[in-house]
Amino acid sequence: MSDGLRIRLDRTICDGFGACAKHAPDYFSLDDWGYASLVGDGTVPEKDRNAVMRALLDCPVHAIIYLGEHRPSDDQKDHPEVREAPEPEPETDDSEAISGFVR
Question: Name one GO molecular function term (predicted).
Answer without folding.
Answer: 3 iron, 4 sulfur cluster binding
